[in-house]
């Protein structure tokens, strides 16, 4: 009987440390916030696009995502409720990402990742607070959202284990590579010629949204006792 009990204990694995049990709630909270943030942003964009009237001439291939909140100045055209839905989605998503960064830091203590994650949340928040009709301020936040978001996805390898570690690097490298390509070649970039400016921008934005949901799910389901390398 004693031998059977010993075998059962060995098969169940080592007892989670007190520190791991303490950190577990932080990981689940962070994961929930990030996953919900990704869902809110994605569904907000889809809903705002669906409610754009045909007269607005908003097309996925040609129109920037931010134009859901209104066209560029001067003479900006703002269509409701699409503008409000988009702005609220960005604001809510940004707040949740910033909050998640706090819990990620408490769970892992990796400032090299959590600082870019928090900055990304601030940039997303800025996109919602300063929509396209505001002009230059929005352009800065929009560009930083893509650059910082790509870096955050890549740097998440610091708190991940394979195979997600490699998936995250790919999801961050895709938008970063496209941004560099667009910066160097501009509108003459092959992807723009193929998909249009709006389609190319979505290849920058959507991998980051997908990463939010995937990484959030990973944190929600990740066993607390597993160590992370790097």
Strand content: under 5%
Q: Any low-confidence stretches, pLDDT <50, length ≥5?
A: 4-18
The total of beta strands comes to: 0
The largest sheet, given as strand count, sense and whether it forms a barrel, is: none
Count of alpha/pi helices: 7
The structural domain count equals 1
N-to-C CA distance: 42 Å
Q: Provide the structure class.
A: mainly alpha
Helical content stands at over 70%
Mean pLDDT: 88
Global shape: globular
What gyration radius follows from the Cα positions, in whole Å? 21 Å
The run of helices and strands is HHHHHHH
What does the secondary structure layout of this molecule look like, with pairings?
Elements: H1 2-12, H2 18-50, H3 82-108, H4 111-129, H5 136-155, H6 164-185, H7 190-221
Helix pairs in contact: 2-3, 2-7, 3-4, 4-5, 5-6, 5-7, 6-7
Note down, in words, how this protein is organized.
This protein has helices spanning 2-12, 18-50, 82-108, 111-129, 136-155, 164-185, 190-221. The protein is mainly α. The protein has one domain (19-221). Residues 4-18 have low confidence and may be disordered.
Considering the chains and any ligands shown, give keywords for the structure:
230 residues; mainly alpha; 0% strand
What would a concise description of this structure say?
With 230 residues, the protein is mainly alpha-helical.
């Amino acid at each position: 009987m004693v031998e059977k009990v010993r075998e059962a204990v060995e098969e169940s694995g080592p007892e989670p440390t007190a520190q791991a049990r303490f950190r577990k709630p932080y990981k689940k909270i962070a994961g929930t916030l990030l996953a919900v943030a990704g869902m809110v942003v994605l569904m907000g964009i889809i809903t705002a696009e669906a409610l754009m009237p045909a007269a607005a001439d908003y097309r996925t291939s040609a129109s920037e995502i931010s134009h859901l909140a209104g066209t560029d100045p001067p003479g900006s055209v703002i269509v409701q409720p699409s503008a409000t839905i988009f702005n609220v989605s960005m604001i809510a998503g940004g707040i949740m990402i910033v909050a998640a960064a706090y819990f990620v830091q408490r769970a892992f203590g990796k400032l090299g990742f959590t600082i870019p994650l928090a900055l990304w949340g601030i940039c997303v928040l800025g996109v919602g607070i300063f929509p396209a009709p505001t002009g230059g301020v929005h352009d800065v936040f929009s560009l930083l959202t893509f650059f910082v978001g790509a870096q955050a996805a890549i740097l998440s390898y610091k708190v991940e284990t394979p195979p997600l570690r490699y998936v995250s690097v790919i999801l961050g490298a895709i938008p970063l590579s496209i941004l560099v390509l667009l910066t160097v070649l501009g509108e003459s970039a092959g992807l723009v010629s193929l998909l249009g400016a709006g389609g190319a921008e979505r290849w920058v934005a959507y991998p980051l949204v997908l990463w939010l949901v995937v990484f959030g799910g990973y944190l929600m389901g990740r066993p607390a006792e597993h160590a992370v390398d790097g």
